Amino acid sequence: MAIKTYTDENGQKFYQVYVNYRSPIDRTKRVQRYSSRLKTEAEARREERKLTEEAARELQRLDGRGILWLDVLNKWEMEVKAGYLRNISERSLYDYIGSVHKWTVPWMKKACSELTKADGRDLIIRLERAGLSRTYQKKVKNMINQIFEWGVEFGLIKGAPNSPVRGLMVQKIEETPPDILTLEEIKKFLTAAKALSHRWYPIWSFAILTGMRSGELHALTWDQIDLEKGTIMVDRSYDSNLGKTGSTKGRYWRTVPINDSLRALIVELKSNRPDGEAGRFVLPRIKDWDNGDQAVSLKNFLKSIKVKPVKFHALRACFATQMLANGVPAPVVMKIGGWKKSSTMDIYLRLAGVDIKGATDCLEFVPSDISFGGNVINLFDAKRGEN
Hints:
Layout: E1 2-7, E2 13-22, E3 30-38, H1 41-63, H2 69-81, H3 90-103, H4 117-129, H5 134-153, H6 183-195, H7 201-210, H8 214-218, E4 225-226, E5 231-234, E6 237-239, E7 244-246, E8 254-257, H9 260-271, H10 287-290, H11 294-304, H12 314-325, H13 330-337, H14 342-352, H15 379-386
Helix pairs in contact: 2-3, 3-5, 7-9, 7-12, 12-13, 12-14
């Protein structure tokens, strides 16, 4: 580190600063900084301090002790895209990275070795205050743990063996029943949509009759439908964030049976099949759907017919609960709908009430032949009369 003076071609005096830092861990690593045309010594001293701090931070990064959280995130994303890490779909990667970026903004310019449990607790508090579900909070926490520990394992992060959220508890939030439509509400909803020839009617009907996700419905083409066998092959899904079609969320194909109501709808759609590129798809092309705004139209329509508004994904839940309520075994419903977690099906079982149906039939304590008519005696009054 040095401060020197020099004179330019016009005879004007200036100061220059030179900073040279070597790594105490690896002497072959060094960082140099240089600045010139400083007018005063005081200005040169301030610049020297600034360059020294910059060089020290850069050297820490080179040593792995000062790599920024943002750098680790970017490197992890590149590794996933290159196929060197977990087999994560592009859609899932977009979701994971987006969530972690959103909630760790205060960490971005911090060295990973400087992140502490205090930073982790601050993150958990912010997630709770935002009113996010416990499931979402755990997802963010788990992704941070995985990315941080990957950085440690591959030598990017040194001096911080554990993630700042490792060991922190996500508070259990009071569970509330998910919003879905009852059988009567489903009938009212679809009857009204059909009577008005609503452009979303075939999409909404398909969703309730098949349990397919929005992206799977959007990507559905005629070659996936076999009316002779009475099945639909579900093997692709449209991602509105990426604007392209890829694999399903579970990354595997499945078949959905076609019942009479769905068959009639398919035949009608086929008879009115448009020409050109749009004709490849079973369901109509709607710009809002392309952009991932399918929930808005559904909620607005339900409000207009005085039915409680639900999310588009709730139509999938309607499919599951109605199937379960009509005696279809849970494993079969899971197979048709592409659910992997039995915990999700447990929620639908509780909503459908299938697992407790008839459980109280044995409780016959009240005699059925007693008439509670107008000759009921007020026991309190009777007792008072005796006194």
